[in-house]
Design goal:
The protein is mainly beta. The protein is built from 13 helices and 30 strands. The strands form three sheets. Strands 18-19-20-21-22-23-24-25-26-27-28-29-30 form a 13-stranded antiparallel β-sheet. Strands 1-2-3-4-5-6-7-8-9-10-11-12 form a twelve-stranded antiparallel β-barrel. Strands 13-14-15-16-17 form a five-stranded mixed β-sheet. β4 and β5 form a beta hairpin. It is globular and about 90 Å long. Residues 1-24, 178-183 and 302-310 have low confidence and may be disordered.
């Protein structure tokens, strides 16, 4: 077996061709929803940042996969499979959850193949548990050949002694739990990786046209778990397939598996950095008026009172012009040649775009002798960042091909003043807003019903009597759905802080989702503080206090939060249950110089367990986010129950990405394989870091390309 593996990789390594024959991105996705042939993996990857959705169906199997190219040479995927009649002794079917990860160790070159190492189903039930080492090479511009060696499920056909036993004898054996596909723990089974028998697989792909591809492969997967249950008829080791790629990223494919089954497949791959309307469909930034025209229009507005404050009419004009640009005027002051303004961004996903619109309105409205502009950004009356610029720079750089970045070089970004002066004539406070409309709530992966949903009417209202103060509430009335139809009781041995979610849905009607009083302030330079009290979320009420240190020019922020929480009644009205807990976390936030953001939270969770949550997000400049999180606490795998520990994937899609119109709203979906009580954190909606991060120095500068938009 060792000789065969060495010969296989060696032969692929000697294949060479003209440099133009190399195509780095994968051309097809396998039935597993990852770069591959038909069932077998290849060493290829997709373009960096690509997000792909795939559904494939054959025999009694349906595989649905979300795949993300996290790094140029690393992708990960989450798969949700429906295996009909898989567990006849337990239930008619199995809904299986699994994670994959793939590392491209070597890129393809003219002199040698791409080489990759991968893990399938490394954190799921083990139905598809396998590992592989694979090489892929273009032998012509349109033909690629792939060969590899697999372990676990990929060693079912022609398995021989593991070549890794030459390094250590322990690689000779593999536990039956993962190999047989009967584990339900969801643990990371490190001890089984690359162990047991190994087998060879391979195949080729011919890209007939830029759209059409055909594939043929020799499969080392015998579908033994399915065949033992009479769900698959494996007659041959060969699979063949074809696919057609449309220009919009959709791929339609079909294949013939195991000499007996027809499979159909639909995939959609896209680059999150490319929005539906890349240039945006919102109104253009206001053009700068000639200085003489501004002077003529503003001469009578500049007649202020003798105490040096601005005239009421100037306030009204400035406020009206800013409102037209989606900005709320909070305060305006003049001193000498300086104009200081505080605004709240109500429209733009990029804070830099809000700053650019503000300075243009100031230039088109204020008297010409005001040459230095100071713009302070605020969130719900909380000052976050101050931006200083010169009026003359706006005119000098107008129309410059590199206007945005040259203006950034001339701009000062610093911490905001700790307090906002309130001008009664502007009447920014008190402020009342509300929204009435539909809502949708989804729940995934219930063993009895993979998708549960609820659609209803929602009323949200906020009242801000003064800077920093916010009173907020939300009422929901379910109308249709099956979220309340779950009859599966919680079997948790931990306090049931989340696993009773079905009771909150079934025993409530009109729901008071939250009702809170919140006060945020600046206790010092680079410091933010918050206290929130009331019905904090659907399942808990109490009081929450937070302190955040976030230097304006830093990628690093540190936070601390302390909460007293009491569990609410299942009717989601005003009553409480007997369970209460002190919970809190120390948090580290770090934004890398690329697209990545890391958050580490350490502390006590709602069930009283202590541990750490690590979250890694890929965040693009347009606001699109894809990330993953995992929590390990002192609750054992047995205490946690199914899934062993809390983990999941989250995707956040800005509404502006979908519509092309500027908006601060986004759609967030968390894909959590199983919701249990361990590692559960309080859902406080007004956490400081999420509130201020987009307008702090580094994040603000990263989006400065939209300053002149």
């Amino acid at each position: 077996m060792r000789v065969h593996a060495i010969l296989l990789i060696g032969c692929l390594s000697t294949l060479s061709g003209p440099l133009g024959a190399i195509r780095a991105p994968a051309q097809t996705l396998s039935t597993y929803g990852t770069p591959g042939l038909v069932d077998m993996p290849t060493a290829e990857v997709l373009p960096d940042g690509t997000l792909a959705l795939t559904t494939s169906n054959f025999d009694n199997t349906s595989r649905n996969t979300l795949m993300f190219q996290m790094l140029p040479n690393v992708y990960g995927s989450f798969r949700y499979s429906f295996l009909r009649d898989f567990d006849p002794g337990v239930g008619l079917s199995r809904y299986d959850r699994s994670f994959d990860v793939h590392f491209q160790l070597r890129r393809e070159t003219a002199a040698g193949p791409a080489i990759a190492l991968g893990l399938r189903d490394f954190g799921g039930t083990g139905v598809y548990a396998s590992e592989y080492l694979v090489a892929t090479k273009h032998v012509t511009p349109d033909v690629t050949v792939t060969g590899g060696i697999g372990w676990g499920r990929l060693a079912g056909r022609g398995g021989q002694r593991n070549p890794l036993t030459a390094l250590n004898g322990r690689f000779d054996t593999r536990e039956d739990s993962n190999a047989g596909g009967i584990s339900t723990t969801g643990q990371l089974d490190f001890g089984n990786w690359f162990r047991g028998d190994a087998a060879l697989f391979g195949g080729l792909r011919w890209d007939v046209t830029p759209h059409w591809s055909v594939m043929a492969e020799y499969s080392s997967d015998t579908y033994s778990a399915e065949a033992q249950r009479g769900l698959s008829d494996v007659r041959a080791p060969f699979n063949i397939g074809a696919s057609y790629r449309f220009d919009n990223g959709v791929t339609l494919g079909g294949s013939y598996l195991n000499g007996s089954a027809l499979a159909v497949q639909l995939s959609y791959a896209f680059d999150p950095r490319r929005a539906a309307a890349p240039g945006g469909q919102g109104a253009a930034a206001p053009a700068l008026k000639p200085a003489e025209q501004v002077a003529l229009a503003s001469w009578n507005l500049a007649q202020g009172r003798t105490n040096g404050s601005q005239s009421p009419r100037l306030n009204d004009v400035l406020k009206s012009q800013l409102e037209a640009e989606g900005l709320r005027l909070i305060n305006f002051e003049r001193e000498g040649a300086s104009a200081r303004i505080t605004v709240e961004n109500l429209r733009y996903g990029a804070a830099a775009q809000a700053v650019g619109r503000t300075t243009r309105v100031m230039a088109n409205t204020l008297p010409p002798h005001l040459q230095q502009f100071e713009v302070t950004l605020a969130e719900n009356g909380l000052p976050t960042t101050r931006i200083k610029s010169q009026r003359s720079d706006l005119y000098e750089l107008e129309g410059d091909l590199d206007e945005a970045w040259r203006s950034l070089a001339r701009t000062e970004i610093e911490d905001a003043p700790e307090r906002i002066a309130v001008d009664q004539e502007i009447a920014a406070f008190p402020r009342f807003t509300y929204r009435f409309g539909p809502y949708t709530q989804l729940s995934f992966f219930d063993p009895d019903e993979p998708l549960r949903y609820e659609i209803g009417a929602e009323l949200k209202a906020t009242y801000q009597p003064a800077p920093g103060w916010t009173f907020a509430g939300q009422l929901r009335q379910p109308v249709i759905g099956n979220l309340d139809a779950s009859a599966r009781p919680s079997n948790s041995v931990l306090p049931r802080v989340r696993s009773d979610w079905a009771r909150y849905a079934s025993e409530s009607d009109l729901r008071l989702s939250h009702l809170t009083a919140d006060y945020s302030w600046r206790p010092g330079q680079d410091l933010f503080a918050r206290v929130t009290a009331g019905y904090l979320e659907q399942m808990f009420g109490g009081i929450s206090a937070e302190l955040l240190w976030f230097p304006v020019g830093s990628n690093l922020a540190l936070g601390a939060e302390l909460n007293y929480a009491r569990q609410r009644d299942f009717d989601v009205q005003f009553g409480f249950q007997d369970y209460d807990v002190m919970t809190g976390h120390a948090s580290v936030y770090y934004k890398t110089r690329g697209d990545y953001h890391v958050q580490v939270d350490m502390g006590r969770y709602l069930a009283g367990d202590w541990g750490t949550t690590v979250t890694v997000d890929r965040e693009f400049n347009n606001g699109f986010k894809v990330g993953a999180f995992a929590t390990l606490t002192d609750a054992s795998y047995e205490e946690f129950g199914e899934g062993s520990f809390d983990k999941g994937i989250r995707v956040e899609v800005p509404v502006a990405w979908l519509t092309g119109k500027p908006s601060r709203r986004s759609i967030t979906q968390v894909i959590r394989p199983v919701l249990r009580d361990g590692g559960a954190r309080l859902n406080v909606q007004t956490r400081l870091y999420d509130k201020v991060r987009d307008s702090r120095g580094r994040a603000l500068a990263a989006q400065w390309g939209r300053y002149a938009r």
